[in-house]
Write a structure and sequence with these properties.
The chain has 171 residues and is mostly helical. It contains 5 helices and no strands. It is elongated, with a radius of gyration of 48 Å. The model has no long low-confidence stretch (mean pLDDT 82).
Length: 171
């Protein structure tokens, strides 16, 4: 295998030769199609008879009408077969895809912040801020002085109970 590349002029020359040969084949195929159509028409469609009396022409028209109906029935049957075959082909394609399964690519770990992820999903038009702490209300902590008061209340309650006890004892 040589490492030399083909020159562009040589490549264009070969391409034009290939296209010329393909064009000749297409022209020859078109001529063969026309010849096949003419042969089919001469075989299946005899030349029209326009001479004769009215009864002969009516009989000829009835024959032509019968031929047209038969051809239309054949065309309809063929179209139905083709449609049925297309449905079967599509069903088989779906079955092949189901049997083969969808290959999941190996996932790679990507370090990405929530902001850049949303920008990638939604596009650069949307600027969404994912700083959730900015949206929170600021709450100031209150210093609780209740435990000291509770301790004082506790002592006070005991003293009150002691006073009540004395009151019952004295009476």
């Amino acid at each position: 295998m040589s490492d030399k590349k083909m020159t562009s002029s040589r490549r264009h020359h070969l391409k034009s030769l290939i296209l010329g040969i393909a064009q000749k084949w297409l022209d020859q195929e078109a001529k063969e199609d026309i010849a096949a159509k003419e042969a089919y028409m001469s075989e299946n469609c005899p030349p029209a008879v326009t001479s004769g009396d009215q009864a002969a022409l009516m009989d000829y028209c009835k024959k032509l009408n019968a031929i047209i109906e038969r051809i239309d029935e054949e065309r309809y049957d063929i179209e139905a077969k083709v449609a049925k075959a297309n449905v079967e082909i599509e069903d088989l394609r779906i079955k092949v895809v189901d049997l083969r399964g969808v290959k999941k690519p190996a996932l790679r770990k990507v370090r990405m912040s929530a902001d850049t992820m949303l920008k990638a999903l939604l596009g650069s038009k949307h600027t969404v801020n994912m700083d959730l702490r900015a949206n929170l209300k600021q709450v100031k902590k209150e210093v609780k002085e209740e435990p000291t008061e509770a301790a004082g209340d506790w002592r006070k309650n005991i003293e009150d109970k002691a006073d009540r006890k004395k009151m019952f004892e004295t009476s």
